[in-house]
Each structure stands twice: as structure tokens, then as C-alpha cells.
Backbone:
């Protein structure tokens, strides 16, 4: 009898082409509830493309992707309802207030008790006093905190993160780390693509090295060892190129 | 209901943004009024001249003013990669198209109502006996134009020189709607309205059905690419 929990992300032989460039080449990957997986690789390795295929922002040329049992091709809306996506862009509208921005996204996610959820989210990121100011007048740090509040509204089951710490100030980075920790402790799933081996990596249990759209290695274990292995991996690739 | 709620949210967001920035409406109105003024001095605006050239001049003004507004349709979505935020939400992407198309329709109709009033003023053209037909034709013509314009604004959004690309793509495709709108407007300027009016109204309705249905089916591909 198989006691391992059912996969929340099941990727089978996924290929994605951009013109003649093969961005993903036969990717097969299984992510289980509670996994905190980090995708590592150089620029152009396919990390962001893989996340975008998982969120069904890009349609794979071949292969199959299932999120929480739903095929991303046939049920993209159900898939996205279960996902939170954090990237270095804020996705905010500058001429709307903080509250209007969150209300807009809450309506798109068809949420109930919208006002209460917005108030909680704004309070959590410390923007309760600025709720009715236009984002246009926010400092960069305030915009970043509001951008972190946005994907918390619909309580996602899986968090996809694309270089989430890129350009964040200290306060926003702490908030994001706090949210990620609560995510991990609730046995929810995180898949993060990053270059940065310094921030937000507590609780990672799987490390996947990508190169030219292929999975080169998958490791588990101590962070310090992984970091050395990754540096060695980059040196080897550099050596191959030269 | 969920789909309509999402369309409503996108429409509300665009209207609120436009209310605060006034980017699209200001450019459409200033351009439209300047064109009417220039035509007023270029032509002798007696009733025969108005009957002959009026419908073409009016729709040319509507169309070029509309293109200016349409170019702004996806500008707000480029800031902070907001379009990607929309694409990540659990919405059928055709709801994004419909919300933005309705917003374009509202902005164009608002600008056109002012332009039409000024046109009537400068060209000695009485709106009162024909206002019902004029409203019907304006709504139908603008709906067709906004339908095809919105999807092409999305296509041209990420191209180099997108401001130039939109009219190059849009004008040939929207030609049937422009012809239908000009001919039906010409038909109501005669007294009594010309017999061809019914034909051109039906023509506009058919093209509107095509121009709304096709983008709804194709918008997914446009966003993905």
C-alpha cells in the first residue's frame, strides 16, 4: 500500500518551444503536499518557463501538467484558483487605491467576505492606515508589501514564486519569509525559482537543478552542502561552455 | 454569473482608472473636436455639402479618435506587468477581452456624443428628427469597431511602434463596419430616410456578431503569444 500523499503537481514529459528554442525539454516532476521545492539554474535554464506552464500562462507544446488533480489544459481556471503566484512584478494598478486593488482581485477570485479579508490582509502588511490612498503615492516598500498581500487573499494551496526576493526591501522580505514559513508549517506546497541562495530558503526539502530546459539533478539535504554542490554544478557548466 | 461578475470587475477597474487619469477621453475629445473644426473651415457647411460629405467626415473623426483611445486600452496593463496578474487570476481569458472591450465602447461612446453634438452645431445638421436612428447607428458602428479594435490593441501591445501598428492592423479589418456605419448615416440624412437604411443596419448587426464572436474565441491565443 502506498502511504505517500497524492501529488499536488504532476508534470509529465513537458516540452515548450519558443520558435526554434527548446525552453523545456521533456520535464517530468512530481511535487507532493508539504514539499518546498527550489528550482535552481542560470538565466535561460527554463525555471520561469516551467512556473508559467504550471500556472497555465503558457501552453506546453506537449506533455501533461496536473495541479491538484486538474489538467492545466482543460481546467485552467480551477488550477489558478488553487495557485498563488509571486514574482518580482507587483501586478498592481497605480491609479487605484490599495483597497480597490485588493477588491478588484478579490472579485476576480470570486471571494466571499471580501471586506473582512481585505482589512485583514492590509493590517497584516501594515497598510491599514493607507488603505484608501492611490498606489501611485506609495513608496516602493509599501507597493511591495501590498503586492505580497494580494496573493494571500484567496488562501492558495500552492505557491509559485519566481525570484520573489528580487528588489524587495527588508520589511517586505521579512513579511514574505513569514508568509512562506506559515505556508510550510501548514504542510502546503511551495515551488520557487531563484538565483539567490541567501534568502527565504528555510524549510526547503527539494532542490532541482535545471540547465537548458532539462532537469540535470535533484537533491535533498543540508543547505550548506547543496550550496556547494550548486556552485560546483555552475563551474562545471561554465567549463563545458568554455 | 461568475463570468459576468469578472467582466464587471474589469470594466469597473478600467472606468475608475479612466475617471482618475482621463487619458483616453481627453485625447479622443481634443482630437475629435480639432478635426471637426478643421473640416468646418475646409468645407462649405450647407445642407447639401453635409448630406454629401457629412457621414464620411463624421465616421472618419469617430474612427481616428477611437484609435487614439484604443491605443491606451492596454497601456495600464503594461505598468507593473498587470496583464500577467489578470492572466493568473481564475478567469476565462475571454472575460478580460469582454471587460476591456466594453470599457473601450463606453469611452468611445462618451467621446462620440460630444463630437456628434459639435458636428451638428458646426455643420447645421439637426439631430432632433433622426436622433433615434443616429444613436442606433452610432452604437452599432462603435460596437463593431471596439470589438475588433480591442483584440488588435492586445495584438499590437507588445510590438515595436504599437501606436502605429494598431491603425495599420485595424483599419483594413474594420472596413466593413466603417462602410456600414457611413452608408446608414447617409441614409438617415435624406428625408425621408433612404430605403437602403434597413439593409445597412442588418449589415452592421451581422458584422457585429462576427466581430464579437471571433475575438472571444481567439483572445486566449493572443494573450499566450
Residues:
Amino acid at each position: 500500500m502506498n502511504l505517500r500523499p497524492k501529488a499536488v503537481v504532476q508534470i509529465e514529459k513537458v516540452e515548450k518551444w519558443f520558435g526554434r528554442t527548446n525552453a523545456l525539454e521533456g520535464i517530468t516532476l512530481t511535487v507532493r503536499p508539504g514539499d518546498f521545492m527550489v528550482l535552481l539554474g542560470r538565466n535561460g535554464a527554463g525555471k520561469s518557463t516551467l512556473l508559467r506552464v504550471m500556472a497555465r500562462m503558457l501552453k506546453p507544446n506537449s506533455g501533461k501538467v496536473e495541479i491538484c488533480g486538474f489538467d492545466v489544459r482543460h481546467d485552467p481556471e480551477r488550477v489558478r484558483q488553487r495557485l498563488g503566484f509571486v514574482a518580482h512584478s507587483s501586478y498592481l494598478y497605480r491609479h487605484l487605491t490599495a483597497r480597490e486593488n485588493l477588491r478588484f482581485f478579490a472579485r476576480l477570485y470570486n471571494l466571499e467576505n471580501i471586506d473582512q479579508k481585505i482589512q485583514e490582509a492590509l493590517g497584516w502588511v501594515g497598510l491599514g492606515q493607507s488603505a484608501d490612498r492611490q498606489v501611485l503615492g506609495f513608496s516602493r516598500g509599501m507597493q511591495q508589501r501590498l503586492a505580497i498581500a494580494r496573493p494571500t487573499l484567496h488562501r492558495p494551496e500552492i505557491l509559485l514564486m519566481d525570484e520573489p526576493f528580487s528588489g524587495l526591501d527588508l520589511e517586505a522580505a521579512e513579511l514574505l519569509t513569514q508568509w512562506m514559513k506559515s505556508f510550510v508549517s501548514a504542510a502546503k506546497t511551495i515551488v520557487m525559482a531563484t538565483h539567490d541562495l541567501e534568502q527565504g530558503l528555510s524549510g526547503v526539502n527539494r532542490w532541482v537543478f535545471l540547465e537548458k530546459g532539462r532537469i540535470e539533478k535533484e537533491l535533498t539535504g543540508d543547505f550548506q552542502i547543496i550550496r556547494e554542490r550548486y556552485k560546483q554544478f555552475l563551474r562545471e557548466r561554465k567549463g563545458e561552455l568554455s | 454569473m461568475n463570468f459576468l461578475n469578472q467582466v464587471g470587475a474589469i470594466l469597473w477597474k478600467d472606468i475608475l482608472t479612466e475617471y482618475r487619469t482621463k487619458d483616453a477621453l481627453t485625447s479622443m475629445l481634443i482630437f475629435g473636436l480639432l478635426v471637426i473644426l478643421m473640416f468646418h473651415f475646409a468645407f462649405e457647411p450647407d445642407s447639401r455639402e453635409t448630406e454629401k460629405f457629412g457621414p464620411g467626415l463624421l465616421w472618419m473623426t469617430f474612427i481616428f479618435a477611437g484609435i487614439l483611445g484604443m491605443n491606451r486600452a492596454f497601456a495600464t496593463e503594461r505598468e507593473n506587468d498587470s496583464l500577467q496578474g489578470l492572466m493568473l487570476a481564475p478567469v476565462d481569458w475571454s472575460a478580460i477581452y469582454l471587460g476591456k472591450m466594453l470599457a473601450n465602447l463606453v469611452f468611445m461612446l462618451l467621446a462620440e456624443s460630444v463630437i456628434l453634438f459639435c458636428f451638428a452645431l458646426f455643420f447645421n445638421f439637426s439631430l432632433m428628427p433622426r436622433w433615434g436612428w443616429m444613436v442606433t447607428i452610432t452604437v452599432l458602428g462603435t460596437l463593431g469597431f471596439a470589438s475588433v479594435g480591442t483584440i488588435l490593441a492586445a495584438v499590437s501591445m507588445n510590438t515595436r511602434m504599437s501606436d502605429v501598428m494598431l491603425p495599420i492592423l485595424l483599419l483594413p479589418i474594420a472596413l466593413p463596419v466603417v462602410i456600414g456605419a457611413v452608408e446608414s448615416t447617409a441614409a438617415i440624412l435624406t428625408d425621408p430616410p433612404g430605403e437602403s437604411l434597413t439593409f445597412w443596419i442588418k449589415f452592421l448587426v451581422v458584422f457585429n456578431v462576427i466581430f464579437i464572436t471571433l475575438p472571444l474565441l481567439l483572445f486566449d491565443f493572443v494573450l499566450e503569444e
Observations:
- Chain B touches chain A at residues 2, 5-6, 8-10, 12-13, 16-17, 20-21, 76, 79-82, 84-92, 224 (CB under 8 Å).
- The mean pLDDT of chain B is 90.
